[in-house]
Design a protein that fits this description.
CATH superfamily: P-loop containing nucleotide triphosphate hydrolases
Bound molecules: adenosine-5'-diphosphate, manganese (II) ion
Order of helices and strands: EHEHEEHEEHHHEH
Radius of gyration: 16 Å
Number of domains: 1
Shape: globular
Helix content: 40-55%
Oligomer: single chain
Distance between the termini: 18 Å
CATH architecture: 3-Layer(aba) Sandwich
């Protein structure tokens, strides 16, 4: 059996990280690590940012907390940032991108408004996460994928499955 690596799925909030990671975890048996949830559940933060309505993530606490399970492999990490994780953790890094109008609707539906909505849309327009990923990881392990439609999501599932070497298409008897 081959060693299991770790995959990072990153992108602006609303691009579909958690949906994609859940499907992949179900299909591969990898663990889905949704950083936002871990931060909340395991107190890996420095309090609540009332302005942006989110926990103030403590990067050292997150990295310390995850080190052991990441060293074992078999994890799909899902987070809207990517520059503070140790580079060695990941074998594959996927950045999801969504067209601005579509993203706007998704975030609005999620209840985002005002500054929080604005800043996330700007983040996507300015390609902040793609740039961050390019600065943090080698080009060879980076995949930038469109996540506008359900068809895109299906295609993205296949891309990651084949990266993990478990694609059915690649294993025809
Ligand atoms: P993130 O984790 O990046 O914030 P989510 O996975 O929570 O994003 O997705 C945000 C919303 O958009 C959800 O309602 C989800 O069902 C929907 N969604 C995610 N990816 C797609 C896609 N590729 N096409 C259409 N809708 C999507
Ligand atoms: Mn999410």
């Amino acid at each position: 059996m081959t060693d299991k690596g770790n995959v990072l799925i990153t992108g602006t909030p609303g691009t579909g990280k958690t949906s994609l990671a859940s499907i992949l975890a179900e299909q591969t048996g990898y663990s889905h690590i949704e950083i936002g949830r871990f931060v909340k559940d395991h107190n890996l933060h420095d309090g609540w940012d009332a302005d942006l309505e989110c926990y103030i993530l403590n990067e050292d606490k997150v990295c310390d907390f995850l080190e052991e399970r990441m060293s074992k492999g078999g994890n799909i990490v899902d987070h809207h940032g990517c520059d503070f994780f140790p580079e060695r953790w990941f074998d594959h890094v996927v950045v999801l991108q969504t067209e601005n109008g579509i993203l706007y609707n998704r975030l609005e539906q999620r209840g985002y408004k005002g500054r929080k909505l604005q800043e996330n849309i700007e983040c996507e327009i300015m390609h902040v996460i793609v740039e961050e990923a390019r600065e943090s990881y080698k080009e060879e392990i980076l995949k930038v994928l469109k996540s506008d439609t359900v068809e895109d999501q299906d295609a993205n599932v296949d891309v990651v499955l084949s990266l993990l070497g478990s694609s059915k298409a690649g294993n025809v008897n």
